[in-house]
Design goal:
The complex is a heterodimer of chains A (293) and B (435). Chain A has 293 residues and is α+β, with helices and mostly antiparallel strands. Chain A has a domain of 185 residues: Jelly Rolls (Sandwich), CATH 2.60.120. In chain A, strands 1, 3, 5, 6, 8 and 10 form a six-stranded mixed beta sheet that branches. In chain A, helix 1 runs antiparallel to helix 5. Chain B has 435 residues and is of the alpha/beta class. Chain B folds into two domains: 196 residues, Rossmann fold; 142 residues, Jelly Rolls (Sandwich). In chain B, helix 6 runs parallel beside helix 7. The relative contact order of chain B is 0.11. The chains are: A alpha+beta (293), B alpha/beta (435). Chains A and B meet through helix 1, helix 2, strand 2, strand 3 and strand 10 of A and helix 1, helix 7, strand 6, helix 8 and strand 8 of B.
C-alpha cells in the first residue's frame, strides 16, 4: 500500500535526520561556550584560563561607580577596611553565575579583633539577589590571613513576571564589605579580589518570553532621546551626563537571541523516539502476516 | 494517522532544531567598553593637609608624619592625571599662638585648584616643601573653605576633598562631621575622603563620620608608602568620570509630584518620610526604576526601603522592597512596570496616551535620638524607560518540553499510536480479504 511505503520512507528519513541531529547535538554540547566563555576570549590575548589576572585593579565605591569585569577575569582592588567595594558583570539567559571573593586581611598584628565580611549581589535594578549556595558572610578570626566568600545566584531567566525578583539578563553588581569589625580595625589596608564563573544550566530554566531589553542601567536614555524632549520629562532627562549612560554595556557576542534552548533538542528527540516506538507498536499490532494490497 | 501526524510533527521539530542548532548558542559575556566618555568637565580635587604641631611625631616608618606627607605629595603631584584640576589647602600651618579663636581660623590655600602643568607641579612641590608643622587642627573650617575652593564650573563636575590629618578637630563646637553633611547636602557632587595618620580612637570616629557623611572613604595610615598609594588611588578615582545625577525634589503626594523622565536623580529624604515622583509611561514602554537610600550617618541596626508604583488613583501596580540589618552604605530596591501596548488592552480611553505612574519612595531608617535629622538621607533614583514591554505567553519555552519524562511520555504515546495504526491496518486487511 502506498501509505505504508510512504511511512517507511518517512521513518527512515526521520531516522537519518535523527542520527545527524544527535551527532550535531553531541558536539554542540561538548563545546558549549558557557562553561568557559572567557577562556576563548582570554586565550586570544595570552591570558591564562585559570586566573586571568588582567581584570580591573580598582573597585567602585557605589552602584554608580561600580567597575565592570568579565567572567574569568580576576578583579582586584586595594582598599581600606570598611570601604564598600562595587564591581559589576553581565549575565545572560541560561547562566548561573557564581561570585567568589577573597579578601587578604591586614596583618594580624595590626588587627585587634575578628572581622565579618560579606558579599552581596544585586541585579540591574539594584534588587538584592539571593544566593543559592555559598558562604556569603564569613567571620575571620583575629589571626586569619584571608577570608573567602562565594555566592551562587539562581539561574538567569529570559523573563519573569514584574512582581517577582527572579534573576534576569543584565548587569549584576557585586558589593564586598566588612559588616562586623572592631572599631580600631577600621581603615586598615586590605586587598580584595573577585571573580565570577558561569554554569550553563541549559534549557531547564528556559521560559517563554523575553525582556524588552536587558536590565542594564541606561537602556532607556537612548529610547528617551529618540522620543525627543516632548516626552513629558521636564526636569533634566535631557542632561548630557545622563546621556553618557545611553550606550549601555553589552556582552562580547551580544545578548542571547532568546530563540535557542536545549528544549529544541529534547522535544525533537522526543518526537523521534515517539516515531520509533510508533513504528514498533505498528509492527507489533499489525503482526507478521503482511497483507498484499 | 496519529503516527503520521507524529512523524510530521517530529520532522518539523527536527527541522526547527537543526536550523536553531545552527544559530550560535554562544553566551560568553564581556563588558563592552563603558560609556564613560572623557568629554565631561574636568574633575576637581583638593588635598587638605593637616600641618598642626602633632605632625612632628616621628612614627611613620621612623620619619615624621610631616615628612611622610611631603613625600606622598611629591609622588601624587607627579602622578596626577592631566585632566584633574588639583589644589592644596593646609590647616594649622601658620598660627603659632595659643588663642584658640585665632588658631581655628588658620587654614590657607597653598596652591589654587587648577590644571597641573609641568611648571605648576614643580611650583606646588616647592610650596609643599616649605611647610613646617605648627598650629591647631581646624578641620571644620578647612572643609568649608575647601568646598568653596572647589565651587564653580559645571554642576556635573565631580569634586573631591582628600583630608589628611593626624588628629581630631580642635575647634568645637563646629562639628566637622556636620559640616561635611551640610556640604554634601548642597548637592554639588562632592566627596570627602579622609586619611588618618596613626589615628587614635577619637580621630578615627570623626574621620570615618566625615567620610560616611559624604559617601567618601576613611583609611587609617601607618606606613609611608601606604599614604602615597592611597592618595594616588583617591585622585585617580576622582579622574574616573561618572554620571552625575540631577537634583530633584519629590513631593509629599503624587498630585504635586515632579514629573521625571529617564535619568539619574538625587533627592534627600528624612527618617520616616515619603517622597512622590511622577513618570509618564507610554503604552508599549517598560518603566524601570531603582532607588538607593544611603545611610550617611549613624542609623539603627534594622532598616528598609520601599519603592511603590501606583496609578494616579492610588492603586498599587508593583512594588520593590528591601530590608537589611547591620552595617551598610545604602539600601536599594527596584521595580519594573511593562505597560502593555494599547491595542492589546480593551481600554478604549487610554489608547496611545501615556499613563502617569506615581512612584513613592519611603524608607524605614531610624536613628538614635542624638543623631541629627536634617538634612535628610541621600536618595538616588534611577528611571529607565525602555521600548517594548516584555511579554510572555506560556511558562514553557515556546511550549517546548524537556527531560526524560517528556521522552518517556512521547515514546508511550508514539507506541500506542503505532499499535492503534497497526490494528487498523490489520482490520482493514481483514476486511479487504473478506471482500
Amino acid at each position: 500500500m502506498g501509505i505504508t511505503k510512504a511511512l517507511r520512507v518517512g521513518v527512515s528519513a526521520a531516522l537519518l535526520a535523527g542520527t545527524a541531529l544527535f551527532g550535531a547535538a553531541g558536539t554542540a554540547w561538548a563545546d558549549d561556550p558557557s562553561s568557559s566563555p572567557s577562556a576563548d576570549g582570554d586565550s586570544g590575548d595570552g591570558g591564562s584560563d585559570s586566573n586571568g589576572g588582567d581584570g580591573p585593579t580598582e573597585a567602585g565605591t557605589s552602584f554608580r561607580t561600580a567597575v565592570g569585569f568579565e567572567p574569568g577575569q580576576r578583579a582586584t582592588a586595594a582598599a581600606s577596611t570598611g570601604e564598600y567595594l562595587y564591581w559589576k558583570f553581565l549575565a545572560d539567559t541560561g547562566q548561573r553565575p557564581t561570585v567568589k571573593a577573597t579578601v587578604k586581611l591586614p596583618e594580624p598584628s595590626a588587627r585587634k579583633g575578628t572581622q565579618t565580611w560579606q558579599v552581596d549581589v544585586y541585579d540591574g535594578l539594584r534588587r538584592r539577589q539571593a544566593c543559592m549556595y555559598g558562604a556569603q558572610t564569613r567571620k575571620a578570626a583575629q589571626n586569619a590571613e584571608s577570608v573567602s566568600l562565594s555566592c551562587t545566584l539562581r539561574p538567569v531567566r529570559a523573563w519573569s513576571e514584574q512582581w517577582s525578583d527572579d534573576p534576569l539578563p543584565g548587569t549584576y553588581y557585586v558589593r564586598l564589605t566588612v559588616t562586623g569589625l572592631k572599631a580600631t580595625d577600621l581603615g586598615l589596608p586590605v586587598q580584595a579580589e573577585v571573580e565570577t564563573t558561569f554554569k550553563d544550566v541549559g534549557g531547564s530554566h528556559a521560559v517563554d518570553g523575553s525582556l524588552a531589553a536587558p536590565l542594564v542601567a541606561g537602556n532607556g536614555d537612548a529610547a528617551d532621546a529618540d522620543s525627543g524632549p516632548g516626552s513629558g520629562s521636564d526636569s533634566g532627562s535631557g542632561n548630557s551626563s545622563a546621556r553618557q549612560a545611553a550606550a549601555a554595556a553589552e556582552p562580547e557576542d551580544g545578548w542571547a537571541s532568546g530563540w535557542w534552548s536545549d528544549r529544541w533538542l529534547w522535544t525533537a528527540a522526543g518526537g523521534f523516539v515517539a516515531a520509533l516506538t510508533g513504528v514498533g507498536g505498528y509492527c507489533l499490532a499489525r503482526g507478521p502476516g503482511r497483507p498484499r494490497a | 494517522m496519529i503516527t503520521r501526524k507524529r512523524l510530521a510533527a517530529g520532522a518539523c521539530t527536527l527541522l526547527a532544531a537543526l536550523t536553531a542548532g545552527l544559530l550560535p548558542a554562544a553566551t560568553g559575556t564581556a563588558f563592552a567598553d563603558d560609556p564613560r566618555g572623557g568629554d565631561g568637565p574636568a574633575p576637581k580635587v583638593e588635598l587638605v593637609l593637616d600641618v598642626s604641631g602633632s605632625m612632628r611625631a616621628r612614627d611613620m616608618d621612623g620619619g615624621s608624619r610631616m615628612a611622610a606627607a611631603k613625600q606622598a605629595f611629591n609622588e601624587v603631584l607627579d602622578a596626577t592625571p592631566d585632566e584633574v584640576e588639583l589644589g592644596i589647602r593646609t590647616l594649622g600651618a601658620n598660627y603659632r599662638g595659643d588663642d584658640r579663636k585665632e588658631g581655628c581660623k588658620d587654614t590657607a590655600q597653598l596652591y589654587p585648584v587648577g590644571v597641573l602643568s609641568k611648571s605648576a607641579r614643580t611650583e606646588a612641590k616647592t610650596a609643599v616643601a616649605t611647610l613646617a608643622p605648627t598650629g591647631w587642627t581646624p578641620i571644620g573650617p578647612a572643609l568649608l573653605k575647601a568646598a568653596d575652593d572647589l565651587e564653580g564650573g559645571d554642576e556635573a563636575t565631580s569634586r573631591r576633598i582628600v583630608l589628611i590629618t593626624d588628629g581630631e578637630d580642635t575647634c568645637a563646637p563646629l562639628d566637622p562631621c556636620e559640616v561635611a553633611r551640610d556640604i554634601a547636602a548642597k548637592g554639588i557632587n562632592l566627596t570627602i575622603d579622609t586619611l588618618g595618620l596613626v589615628p587614635d580612637a577619637k580621630t578615627r570616629d570623626q574621620l570615618s563620620c566625615i567620610a560616611d557623611a559624604t559617601g567618601g572613604t576613611y583609611s587609617s595610615i601607618r606606613h609611608k608608602d601606604e599614604l602615597s598609594d592611597r592618595v594616588n588611588q583617591l585622585v585617580d578615582r576622582a579622574a574616573e568620570p561618572v554620571i552625575t545625577p540631577v537634583a530633584v525634589e519629590g513631593a509629599d503626594q503624587c498630585a504635586k509630584a515632579p514629573k521625571i523622565g529617564s535619568g539619574l536623580y538625587t533627592d534627600r529624604e528624612k527618617f520616616g518620610e515619603h517622597r512622590w515622583y511622577q513618570v509618564d509611561v507610554k503604552p508599549g514602554q517598560e518603566l524601570r526604576a531603582s532607588v538607593s537610600v544611603a545611610a550617611d550617618r549613624q542609623v539603627d541596626n534594622d532598616y528598609g526601603v520601599l519603592l511603590r508604583a501606583t496609578t494616579v488613583h492610588g492603586r498599587e501596580i508593583v512594588r520593590g522592597e528591601s530590608a537589611g540589618s547591620g552595617r551598610t552604605d545604602v539600601i536599594s530596591a527596584g521595580l519594573r512596570y511593562p505597560k502593555a501596548d494599547s491595542e492589546d488592552t480593551d481600554d478604549a480611553d487610554g489608547a496611545g496616551e501615556p499613563e502617569t505612574v506615581c512612584l513613592r519612595v519611603s524608607n524605614s531608617f531610624s536613628a538614635p535620638a542624638s543623631v541629627k535629622r536634617e538634612p535628610g538621607l541621600p536618595v538616588e533614583l534611577t528611571i529607565d524607560l525602555v521600548d517594548g514591554p516584555s511579554d510572555a505567553s506560556d511558562v514553557a519555552f515556546f511550549g517546548l518540553g524537556r527531560g526524560w519524562w517528556l521522552l518517556g511520555a512521547l515514546a508511550v504515546a508514539g507506541f500506542l499510536g503505532g499499535v492503534l495504526w497497526g490494528w487498523l491496518a490489520r482490520w482493514r486487511g481483514a476486511v479487504t480479504r473478506s471482500n
